[in-house]
Amino acid sequence: MAENDVDSGVANGVIYIDQEDGIKRVMNNSKLYIKLLDKFRTGTSPDELFKTLEAGDYEKAQVAVHTIKGVAANLSLQELYKQALELETQIKTRAVHNGAPEAFRTCFDVTLQCIDMVIKQHG
Q1: 108: closest CA among 16, 34, 35?
Q2: Range of the domain at 106
Q3: Cα separations (Å) of 76 from 33, 48, 52, 90?
Q4: Distance, CA of 25 to CA of 78 (rounded, Å)
Q5: I want to staple 80 with a disulfide (CB 3.0 to 4.6 A). Which of 24, 65, 68, 72 is the partner?
Q6: What's the predicted TM-score (pTM) here?
């Protein structure tokens, strides 16, 4: 992944962060937006989601992915929102496709890389 692609919240041609929309969501306060991205980066993990999925506790897994989906939507983390929505749908139907959790993990990790670059860019 080229660093210049990540700077704008895009990696491999996929929009991971829509900074413009995210900043609009916090009344054009870019400092607050960066603070919220940093809080997400340091305080959010999909580990609980994966533990509950492995244990077959679909109710807790659904709550965990729903929470990540909501925060991703609020911060305009476009691709993470899409992946969370897809995984949440699969969890609701108790039909999690092979590879779906791994795809979500990869998306989450790339999103964190993009967040790091956005914070660095605004830092």
Answers
A1: 16
A2: 3-122
A3: 10, 22, 26, 22
A4: 14
A5: 72
A6: 0.90
